[in-house]
Design a protein that fits this description.
With about 375 residues, this protein is α+β, with helices and mostly antiparallel strands. The chain folds into three domains: about 70 residues, 2-Layer Sandwich (Dna Ligase, domain 1); about 130 residues, D-amino Acid Aminotransferase, Chain A, domain 1 (2-Layer Sandwich); about 150 residues, Rossmann fold, CATH 3.40.50.261. Strands 1, 8, 9, 10, 11, 12 and 13 form a seven-stranded antiparallel beta sheet that branches. Strands 2-7-3-4 form a four-stranded antiparallel beta sheet, covered by helices on one side. A hairpin with a 2-residue loop joins strand 5 and strand 6. Helix 5 crosses helix 6, helix 8 runs antiparallel to helix 10 and helix 10 packs across helix 11. The longest helix is centred in the middle third of the chain and has 17 residues. The relative contact order is 0.10. Bound molecules: guanosine-5'-diphosphate and manganese (II) ion. Guanosine-5'-diphosphate binds next to strand 3, strand 4, strand 8 and strand 11.
């Protein structure tokens, strides 16, 4: 789950990171009131769960409350990379001398948290990563020991931070580290962390991603979930105990087990197709669950054929076959459906599907090729 800038900065502040004390507005009039309260220049910032807001016109400085209202009016309702702006953060404007990048993230390859920082922070950090990767300094953190002060100092030196700012940088790095660690984040990022004209460090932009698998440990974060920003189908899937991730291909997948679902996607690609989604229906496959899965897969207009791949263990393939047939009474499936059963009662399952318009397959390779072909045939007039 991704958190908005204002939510991330609020958490960072609780961990001692200095951030601007702004407020969120949902209307231009509210933005004006906040600007009046703050006094002086303010910055109006689109709160959407995507980066690059600055370049998309989603971050603007207002000189007075009237301007704040006008700019909020421009930014609210903007479409930034497919995200509709419904909220803006009104922060006191900062006097920026230098923009620094700092973050903690999971390095899965190293199986460790990774601290990254760069003197070349700001809006073009992705570009820096591409063109001058040596300008991004990396320091691994031992998960058992946490971030040591000497590591924060080493980082401050490496990004050539003026020495008088090292203690402040250490405090911010420790705060960010503890926020990342305590909240089970996969990312805690400040970009830019600025040096102000009068020589203070301030976290101007914040971003946090929380590991979904750890959300049960953080009921306090569940309230921060922005339903508007989540893929509706992914929410629907969660209700039925399905794991669904939308992708860009045309072959819908319904599989029991995450590993098998990934294998299925690989095999589809191996035969030149593109999966439309990842979908793990989990254990058991009653009609209601399968029907929900059909509805979710079919809500994607790119899907031209569906591949159902079931390996029967405790869940028996004949049970699943009945679930599929019952679900097809509930949901009208007009595109080709290819079913591959393996494991417990695979033959019985296939027998139940005989005489229906469902296409059955013995092996996964066979099934993938049939699904790709069926999608092609369905496109022919
Ligand atoms: P992002 O583009 O989505 O990462 O949004 P940021 O919050 O990082 O803002 C983008 C850029 O806007 C920053 O790198 C700054 O250069 C600029 N910016 C943000 N807040 C202020 C501010 O208070 N004053 C000034 N002068 N510039 C700001
Ligand atoms: Mn930023």
């Amino acid at each position: 789950m991704n958190l908005h800038e204002y939510q991330s900065k609020q958490i960072f502040a609780e961990y001692g990171v200095p951030v601007p004390q702004g407020e969120v507005a949902t209307t231009p009039a509210q933005a004006r009131q906040i600007a009046e309260k703050l006094g002086g220049k303010v910055v109006i910032k689109a709160q959407v769960l995507t980066g690059g807001r600055g370049k998309a016109g989603g971050v603007k400085v207002a000189n007075n409350p009237a301007e704040a209202e006008a700019l909020a009016g421009q930014i609210l309702g903007l479409d930034i990379k497919g995200h509709l702006v419904k909220k803006v953060l009104v922060d006191p404007a900062a006097d920026i001398a230098t923009e620094i990048y700092v973050s903690f993230t999971n390095d899965r390859g190293a199986r460790k948290p990774l601290m990254m920082a760069s003197a070349a922070g700001g809006m073009d950090i992705e570009e820096v990563a591409r063109t001058d990767p040596e300008k991004i300094i990396k320091i691994y953190v031992d998960p058992h020991l946490g971030l040591h002060d000497y590591q924060a100092r080493e980082m401050a030196a490496a990004i050539e931070l003026p020495q008088e700012l090292w203690p402040a940088f250490n405090q911010i790095a420790q705060g960010l580290w503890h926020a990342y660690w305590d909240k089970d984040a996969t990312l805690a990022e400040i970009n830019p962390l600025i040096i102000t004209g009068d020589g203070r460090l301030v976290g101007l932009d914040g971003k946090m991603s929380i590991d979904d698998n750890a959300m049960y440990r953080h009921p306090e974060l569940e309230a921060l979930r922005d339903k508007d920003e989540e893929v509706a189908e992914e929410n629907e899937a969660r209700k039925f105990g399905l794991s669904y991730i939308k992708l860009d291909g045309n072959i819908g997948c319904m599989v029991n087990g995450a590993g098998l679902a990934m294998t299925t996607m690989d095999i589809i690609k191996l035969f030149g197709g593109e999966p439309a989604n990842f979908l793990d229906i989990g254990g058991g496959a009653g009609a209601d669950k399968v029907a929900a899965a059909f509805r979710i897969i079919l809500s994607d207009p790119n899907v031209e054929a569906i591949l159902i791949n079931i390996f029967g263990g405790i869940t028996r393939c004949d049970e699943v076959a009945r679930g599929i047939l019952d679900a097809m009474e509930q949901v009208k499936v007009t595109i080709p459906l290819v079913v591959r059963f393996g494991g417990t009662n695979a033959d019985e399952g296939r027998a139940l599907l005989e005489g229906t318009k469902l296409i059955t397959a013995q092996t996964l390779s066979d099934a993938a090729q049939k699904a790709i072909q069926a999608a092609k045939d369905a496109k022919q007039p």
